């Protein structure tokens, strides 16, 4: 098995907490981190190993994007400046109905994967139709992913009713169970779009199979009223009653929390996935991360799709998260830079039940890593590298990325993905979608005449 020494200027392993190390080496052997030790000792011990010098770089754990709909990158900027229900019902769902199929998912997912890798993301937690296509695209690109098994009470090109979604999802889960880059999670779309019987079935199987449940929860104020109207009880009480309020739940958004909710989440060890830029852009509200943190709730970060963000840049998302938390609570201490970095790494690994494998640079963990160049105008001078990572660094400064010890990005360039082809495919979809939107608009114009 090949052994490689990574020799960075600085190392931020995330665990142990708050450490910034100099003159260190990270020893990779196959897909794992074999050792983290002083540079001189590593060079003496592993004389025959390959060496990668990173003299102007900080080495970090790869970032984990905890909420994506990767194929929707093809709808980046398609519909902006609208509230969630109008955005979904009048724009996103109709265009998805017209175009979503295996080719759309394949091409959109590859576009998303390339963007994520280029920004240091080594793992994405996805939720979309045709998950078997997303899974294949991830494996082909060499990125790690948790593939959501979608369930929604709306027939689509992928499945008919809720039980059909669940059955098809289980087949996808089983067919990829031996793929080391992947795991799977049930992904009921939202409390308002999945019925009680389906949620109960998902809860039971999630326990039996130890699968995560990745779900939009309390994204907007509309959803709070809708739960009372449809089900006669608040959302979290309903999720508790169907058996979903537990440590396997990855509850995305959570912008509408009251005091009772905070206690219930903390008591059940639910993981909250914060997507600040999507929440801000759709005007849905603000997830109160300071209060969640005070209650001991595990918090990780997601970008949501490029249709509501409109990028998949996790470093930028972490900056937004930190600034928003401070501004909203009028307390600059509510989230510090290191805590923001933890949301991108170890907290996400914990949410996935993978904190013994991912999220920090420690011996025995998987070698999912990224390096960031520090020799630029806007990272000079540098008193605290973690401060720079959250408040200053651009994702374009990510120079190297490894997943499972395999280098995928070197000096900012892709080693295995054909980016020109990915961009050409995205332009092809842009033309098709633009033509469809024009035709729909002219039809509407004629109707109104
Ligand atoms: Zn979403």
Describe the model.
The chain has helices at about 40-45, 85-100, 100-120, 130-140, 160-175, 195-210, 220-230, 235-240, 260-270, 275-280, 290-295, 315-330, 335-345, 345-350, 385-390, 420-449; strands at about 5-10, 20, 25-30, 30-40, 50-60, 65-70, 120-125, 145-150, 180-190, 210-215, 250-255, 270-275, 300, 370-375, 400-405, 405-410, 415. It is α/β, with parallel strands linked by helices. Helix 6 links the parallel strand 9 (about 180-190) and strand 10. Zinc ion (ZN) binds near residues 67, 69, 216 and 304.
In CATH, the architecture of the largest domain is Alpha-Beta Barrel
The major beta sheet can be summarized as: 9 strands, mixed
The domain tally reads 2
Overall SS class: alpha/beta
* Rg, Å, rounded: 22 Å
Query: Under the CATH scheme, which class of the largest domain?
Result: Alpha Beta
In short:
By secondary structure, this protein is of the alpha/beta class. The chain has helices spanning 39-45, 84-99, 102-118, 131-141, 162-175, 196-209, 221-231, 235-241, 259-268, 276-281, 289-294, 314-329, 337-344, 346-351, 385-391, 419-448; strands at residues 3-11, 21-22, 24-29, 32-38, 50-61, 63-68, 121-126, 144-151, 182-188, 212-217, 249-253, 271-274, 299-301, 369-373, 398-403, 406-410, 413-414.
């Amino acid at each position: 098995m090949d052994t490689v020494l990574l020799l960075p200027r600085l190392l931020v392993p995330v665990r142990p907490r708050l450490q910034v190390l100099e003159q260190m080496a990270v020893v990779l052997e196959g897909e794992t981190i074999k050792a983290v030790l002083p540079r001189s000792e590593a060079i003496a011990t592993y004389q025959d190993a390959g060496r990668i010098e990173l003299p102007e770089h900080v080495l970090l754990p790869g970032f984990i994007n905890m909420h994506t709909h990767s194929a929707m990158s093809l709808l980046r900027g398609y519909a902006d400046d609208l509230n969630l229900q109008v955005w979904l019902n009048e724009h996103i769902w109709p265009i998805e109905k017209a175009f979503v199929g295996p080719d759309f998912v394949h091409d959109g997912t590859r576009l998303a994967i390339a963007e994520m890798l280029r920004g240091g993301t080594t793992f994405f937690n996805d939720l979309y139709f045709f998950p078997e296509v997303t899974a294949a695209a991830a494996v082909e690109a060499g990125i790690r992913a948790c593939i959501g098994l979608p369930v929604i009470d709306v027939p689509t090109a992928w499945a008919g009713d809720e039980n059909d979604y669940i059955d098809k999802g289980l087949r996808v889960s089983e067919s990829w169970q031996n793929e080391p880059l992947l795991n799977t999670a049930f992904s009921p779309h939202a409390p308002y779009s999945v019925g009680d019987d389906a949620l109960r079935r998902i809860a039971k199987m999630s326990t039996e199979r130890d699968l995560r449940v990745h779900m939009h929860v309390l994204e907007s104020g509309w959803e709070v009223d809708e739960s009372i109207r449809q089900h006669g009880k608040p959302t979290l009480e309903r999720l508790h009653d169907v058996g979903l309020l537990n440590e396997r739940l990855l509850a995305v958004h959570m912008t509408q929390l009251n005091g009772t909710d905070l206690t219930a989440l903390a008591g059940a060890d639910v993981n909250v996935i914060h997507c600040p830029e999507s929440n801000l852009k759709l005007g849905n509200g603000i997830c109160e991360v300071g209060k969640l943190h005070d209650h001991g709730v595990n918090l990780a970060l997601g970008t949501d799709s490029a249709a509501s963000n409109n990028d998949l840049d996790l470093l930028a998302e972490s900056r937004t998260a930190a600034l928003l938390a401070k501004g909203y609570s009028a307390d600059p201490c509510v989230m510090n830079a290191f805590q923001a970095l933890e949301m991108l790494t170890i907290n996400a690994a914990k949410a996935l039940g993978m904190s013994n494998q991912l999220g920090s640079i420690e011996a025995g963990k998987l070698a999912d890593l990224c390096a960031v160049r520090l020799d630029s105008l806007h990272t000079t001078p540098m008193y605290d590298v973690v401060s720079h990572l959250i408040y200053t660094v651009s994702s374009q400064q990510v120079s190297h990325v490894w997943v499972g010890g395999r280098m995928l990005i070197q000096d900012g360039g892709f080693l295995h993905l054909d980016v020109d082809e990915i961009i050409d495919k995205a332009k092809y979809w842009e033309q098709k979608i633009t033509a469809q939107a024009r035709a729909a608009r002219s039809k509407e114009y004629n109707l109104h005449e």
